[in-house]
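Summary for the steering committee. The consortium agreed at its last meeting that each partner would contribute one worked example illustrating the joint modelling workflow. Our contribution is presented below. We chose a case with several input lines so that the handling of multiple components could be demonstrated. No manual editing was applied between input and output; the record is shown as generated.
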Amino acid sequence: MPEAHRKLERSAIGFVLAIVVVASIGGLVEIAPLFTIDETVEEVEDMRVYTPLELAGRNIYIREGCYACHSQMIRTLRDEVERYGPYSLAVESQYDHPMLWGSKRTGPDLARVGGKYSDEWHVAHLVDPRAVVPESKMPAYAWLQRNTLKTDDLPGHLTAMHRVGVPYTDAMIENAAHDAFAQAYPDSDMAEGMAERYGADTNIRAFDGDPGRLTEMDALVAYLQIVGQLTDAAHEKRTGEQVVRAEETE
Amino acid sequence: MIAGLTATERQIGLVLAGLVTLMGAALGIAGRNDVLGYQGLLIVVFGALVMIALLRNLDAPEPDESRLAEYYDDPIRFGIVLTMLWAIFGMFVGLWVAALLAWPELTFDAAWASFGRLRPAHTTGVIFGFGGNALIATSLHVVQRTSRARLPDQVSPWFVLLGYNLFCLLAVTGYFAGITQSKEYAEPEWYADLWLVIVWVAYFALYIRTLARRKEPHIYVANWYYMAFILVVAVLHIVNNLAVPVSFGSAKAYSAFSGVQDAMTQWWYGHNAVAFFLTAGFLGMMYYYLPKRAERPIYSYRLSIISFWGITFMYMWAGSHHLHYTALPHWVQTLGMTFSVVLLVPSWASAANALLTLNGAWHKVRDDATLRFMMVAAVFYGLSTFEGSFLAIRAVNSLSHYTDWTVGHVHAGALGWVAMITFGALYTLTPAMWKRARMYSNTLVEVHFWCAVIGTLIYVFAMWNSGIIQGLMWRTYNDSGTLTYSFIESLVAMHPYYIARTLGGLFFLAGAAVGTYNIFMTIRHEPLPLSRRAEALGTDRPLVPGE
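What follows is the complete predicted structure of the assembly.
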């Protein structure tokens, strides 16, 4: 072996090629099949896309680095399922570009936070976490309530999402800015068209409690309320026996 | 430094800086209604500063031809200074985010100062700012010395170094402004990512051209690692950052991948950023500076080969251990776990090779804090790779994942291995680069060493404790079969460890500050006359007992 290697060491180009070949194998074997094997992502009927307001909220979640302390991936372990809810399925983040599974839980997992608390709770908690949970270590995000949401570029956002494979229709893209307003302005004419495009189950509420003004708080709360709610697939699968007991893994 | 460039080189530099400025202006104008506008402005300022510096010296006399008979070290000196500045910045922000977990009000109601925006500024500051500059500076030093060849030109090293720091600046200022694509350790957005590709191609070309000029028939082992670092980081960076921007005037882009494929791609990237940025690159450093300082040849050529190819092949399979029990298909998790465990063999081969090299030089380890930095680095490398393989085992991971144990593991590697080998290398390199007999103060090197060791130990022990307690509390059941602790109770239990961790970070930062002072004082001191250098070196080197 050392003799053959001594030869290789005499050629910079040979060495470069050898490194590229040797290092490429692992990724090719592990990543490429994820795109081709059908079972990787479950097929479900009811999976819906994010509304423009929810997408804007998701981008605020990303901007503020919420993923650094909150995961959105419930593992197939008994204690996690009992603490947070049904374990996460691949399909649930099918339209997440990028995914926000996270790697650290300084705060709790949020994969099932949608619908768990009221809008008022979220607003109060985001403005001053320690007013709601005295022991919390979460930063206060009071400025979200002060910042008006930027909506004029939302059609561009939906177009980009469409380009990477999310099934937004032309009507959705065209009306994106309107629909963002509409979702936080219930009982308006705009709200009807919005519900038509995204489904009757869409949350249409003044998320931050003030219907007159569309804030970043509206968007973030709209997003938090939909996390884990894009499909019911995880709840249907709950009856399966796939939950691994933490103790049994030893 | 500019005086060392020829008139043609200054003109080329001016054109390049001009192009960068124009590019920044284009981004700034297109993104005037977006946070991207500020980033464009930053590029313009950066490019303009380089242009001004060049213009002020455009008519300076041509440098002496004799320069071509020496190695080209100006960019290395500049890189050393940048390394220490980024160290102070990155570690200070690290201390701040650590404090935020103990005292969350330290955000002062300012968006830019909240944990989620500061945290990537810390990781980018230390990994890419401190670590990356150290790698670029040392690699340019090592490749010249081990090839006995001068860098092929005097422009591209500056393009690489300055271009890379522009990338780091764009990244960090972007986070403060809320620009991030949320992929851990790959947070910068599309325009910064594209810029890094350009810089990286120039870096690779510079490295390979220097190797092509080598007067040594064989490529030395340190260069294998630096090459693997440059090549594989390029592959990882390009694949993981594939994305579609909203528009040319928007900082935001949407990742080409989603969900489970994105998760796998991200952790294939994330784990191999650890492998090829934080391991391969710094092993390259170790393979040159440790034997140099110990004045001992590398213990085993055979071990070098085994560990190099083992690391290059196997690390790329290991990323999926970040996704145990998730929605990632089981077979990928199992592959990742298996390779992570086997990876211990080449990792320990490297650590053993380093420590056995010190055989016959242990008295120097005792007396010379610089060499001791590198010895401790090799020990921490061995420990944290063992811990890494252990944590990759599925059952262990079920406890450790999502907890502070991971954070402790990362810092055992980052503080104990990466930072310590870097400080050892810098204390060897700095006097040589400025033609000094030794560092300004050996006592301060000693002070830095102990600050670093104490800081690392406090930090790692605090995180081991908090991580394991956290993991256990989350899965503790009471007699009636329900979970015993609420989440918030586990968070409250972390408080003392978060304070201890902050203290550990403070020690480490204090050490780095002492080191920076020592390096700057070494630079400021007049070089010793040649006649006295041999004599001074004699007092600098610890005496061998019985000699």
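The longest helix of chain A spans residues 12-36. The two ends of chain A are 40 Å apart (CA to CA).
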